[in-house]
């Protein structure tokens, strides 16, 4: 802990073992390797790079040699060295605030205002009517509308010389307002990507590490195959990304920087993972989440003029509901704080719950009790 | 150390004091405040953002309100919300490998290959003939050639609707081959920026923290006034940037992310700064550097057919020399390693020295002795 080593250049002799016993022990099914990074933004940006490298290799029939023109042009920021590839992201999505990740973020204007960007495609993400059971047909149509638009945009950008190398998406659009997509939507998204030749990156920076009751939120989707890249940070303490073998860069030094993450954070993660297992915290999060979800749903049924759209069923404690307007939402958050409960807001109307994995049923009951008081007093 | 806090949202109660006694105690003259970040790339990128915000405010006569059109357009990555502003950087410069910092990096093709970029201006940086004393007139002309090109490029990009909000430059182009600019060049660069309305960011990620014998390399330049922004990382253990008061963002949450650096690294820095002062390490670096520089210069005079262009006079131990070709350079680095001395290469021909601040005269003499052996055995 009393140093900041450059892991890429001088990895400690225990580095492999530490990675194996931590990050590799929870690698999502179907993925091959992991790269550590410092934060969520640069985890995503390096995942983006991996997709661009993969796309170029495919475009050139597997040839990964550089031409003289590649080398000269890239030093001047020009194609073919710096290609005009793009990534498709979603309205309401958030992937970070460094320049590259910011191109794909569309949740708040204040994040993007005044900063140069690139013309990359942005698709609509499904916005469901709740409760889901009563709106099956409409929500299915919403999935199809969004998927059709994704395909249309990829076709359009491919045609105009800005081919879409990959799709980047959160399993739950968290900053954008805890917007959930159905399993069918995500399977459809993967299918469209495969059909159009675009990779799929799932950004688990906010959802990864257990809050949905599984280590990775996308496990809930039961996708036909693994996404190509999964990124993480936050709860994982270290940033980084997992990828399939064919997404490992074809040359050394292409996914690289001075620090390559921070071994100290991986040491913390080792212990965190041990505690998650020892105390069965994923199961705890699932059980606690079910109580929270049911409790909030009951409040919604009692106070439909104040809150609605409770969501996050079977997603552990990763639960949100809407105030009927921003003012009501803000009042709920503020009044809860005065009662000693801290919750956050996201999007325009959402109250989002993000308790730690050690949040237990008894805590959930206290939260529900105080939330009821707050809503009654509105 | 056993946590990774979100400093921006929940700063510790000791945070202000820790910053005051560390980063603020060594703030470059003429600068006003500091922002911590995780790494060098995101320190630069957030410095870039600060310049873009400043430029927009000036362009709009100090009005920092957002128009409806700003808000709508920025969510789609389009102007005026996401303006077509640019930054001028230098051929051979390096500022990081996240997407934004990479646009301004031009030292190695492998860094940029296959990654989409933007058309931002790249100017030539002076390449001097050594020894400097024997090439005064030519090198002065080289300064003027590069400064003229900087001005020309800014004019050209301003005219074509991609105004140059700022100039970004390292005090020594380190990754590019330890390329030094004269004090006159840097003063001229600042003057051109002021004339054209572009800000000046000096990237001290590699030079900052003492290796040039002063805390900040740009102090050597005796600029008429402070640069607008100074970025740091590496030796400073924490990333971040200093800026003038008018470069603080005009609204909250515009320079922001989850972690905002890492308090653990600032705690390390506090002790590092104490030791630098206690052991007089800046003075040590200056004295040791003078010995190294003189010694290498003597070797150059004895073996001009093998090495040349010794540089870094009065720059502490931040010293480099060239092999006559890449093969000779690589052999020197490799053979030194076999004699227990680790040095690095940068650019095409340079051997660069980057000892720690505790490298003392007696170490310098050992290095010089082994370097002489290696050169004699070539």
Question: Can you describe what's shown?
Answer:
2 copies of one chain form a homodimer. Chain A is α/β, with parallel strands linked by helices. In chain A, helix 1 runs parallel beside helix 8, helix 6 packs parallel to helix 7 and helix 9 runs parallel beside helix 11. Chain A has 2 domains: 264 residues, Type I PLP-dependent aspartate aminotransferase-like (Major domain) (Aspartate Aminotransferase, domain 2, 3-Layer(aba) Sandwich), CATH 3.40.640.10; 97 residues, Aspartate Aminotransferase, domain 1. The first copy, chain A, starts with 14 loop residues before the first helix and ends with a helix. In chain A, the strands form 3 sheets. In chain A, strands 1-9-8-7-4-2-3 form a 7-stranded mixed β-sheet, with helices on both faces. A 4-stranded antiparallel β-sheet of chain A has the order 10-11-13-12. In chain A, strands 5-6 form a two-stranded antiparallel ribbon. The model of chain A has no long low-confidence stretch (mean pLDDT 97). The first copy, chain A, contains 11 helices and 13 strands. Chains A and B meet through helix 2, helix 3, helix 4, helix 5 and helix 8 of A and helix 2, helix 3, helix 4, helix 5 and helix 8 of B.
